[in-house]
Write a structure and sequence with these properties.
- This protein is mainly β.
- The chain has three helices and ten strands; from the N terminus they run αβαββββββββαβ.
- An eight-stranded antiparallel beta barrel has the order 2-3-4-5-6-7-8-9.
- The longest helix is centred in the last third of the chain and has 13 residues.
- The N terminus is likely disordered.
- Bound molecules: 2-acetamido-2-deoxy-beta-D-glucopyranose.
- The site of 2-acetamido-2-deoxy-beta-D-glucopyranose has 4 residues, from loops.
């Protein structure tokens, strides 16, 4: 139980973004064909699940770099009251049959948490879902929409929200992130 909580709380490192829900995780479809190489580089946080209004960071970015062992170096940077916060993690694809389902962790002591890519076009947006069932009674979920720029086209946002809703993900949990004055 404690370990499960630890997984859920460590999935995105710098960003506290957990949402508790009753019942099981949403049954989502992840992107079928996925090219990790095109996914690398810098992304900016546009929306994320957030139930935590304190210690809110702004200008959050994620940088993904391929390592020689095939894993991905994850480098998340955000600013809290002008102070830089950084979390470096490790990601990889546990099952080659599901190339868009990564596992990510920010501590060698933590198990890998799900980082499932629901939809990305590599050049504009990505939508990620991470959910852990707990005792089949409730779940802790996270979701993010990241963009290659600090702003995202409204038509893309609307399409991604609709897709998330179609999987039963409650998009009212999405909060717009602050990417101004960065
Ligand atoms: C997505 O990104 C590409 C390449 O940067 C750009 O040409 C295209 O207009 C973008 N699409 C949308 C819908 O913003």
């Amino acid at each position: 139980m404690l370990q499960l909580l630890f997984v859920a709380l460590s999935v995105f490192g710098v960003s506290q973004a957990q949402v508790f829900g009753l019942g099981k995780c949403a049954q989502v479809k992840t992107q079928e064909s996925f090219d990790l190489n095109r996914y690398l580089g810098t992304w900016y946080e546009i929306y994320k699940f957030n139930s935590n209004f304190e210690g809110k960071q702004k200008c959050v970015s994620a940088n993904y770099q391929l390592q020689s062992n095939g894993h991905v170096r994850v480098d998340n940077i955000g600013f809290e009251n002008g102070e830089k916060k950084e979390a470096v993690g490790d990601g990889y694809v546990p099952d080659k049959n599901y190339p868009s389902r990564l596992g990510v962790r920010f501590s060698n002591l933590a198990p890998y948490a799900k980082y499932w890519i629901l939809d990305t076009d590599y050049t504009n947006y990505t939508m990620i879902y991470s959910c852990t069932d707990i005792l089949e009674l409730f779940h802790i979920s996270y979701a993010w929409i990241l963009g290659r720029d600090r702003t995202l086209d409204e038509s893309i946002e609307n399409r991604l929200f609709a897709k998330a809703e179609s999987y039963g993900i409650d998009t009212s949990n999405f909060l717009k992130e602050d990417q101004t004055g960065c």
